[in-house]
């Protein structure tokens, strides 16, 4: 079975359980997917049953890579619905992850920073004493 487990623009990771047992499948996937004109590199980890593909986002997309794996590697392919392909998250345009423009937000950020520094100092002192 082929499953896209992680996808960010330009990089996708697929899980293919058949890779664990079949060395020729790994070679075939690397050869066939690597031959796509928009693919920059293909990394295979058989122990993790993982295929990482780096690709050019202007010329290719994850769905095409997955379809290519299924079409050229029958041992890896199983029928799947198109919605199973992971889609990249919309790009954030200069929006902060946390909104800290409130008094509460600033107070929480300050408290978290102090807690981290305090923990670091405590661990350094304990390490120095032992």
UniProtKB/TrEMBL annotation:
Q: Which domain of life is it from?
A: Bacteria
What single Pfam family name could you report for this chain, choosing any that match? Answer: HMA_2
Please report the name of this protein according to its UniProt entry: Uncharacterized protein
Organism whose genome encodes this protein: Celeribacter persicus
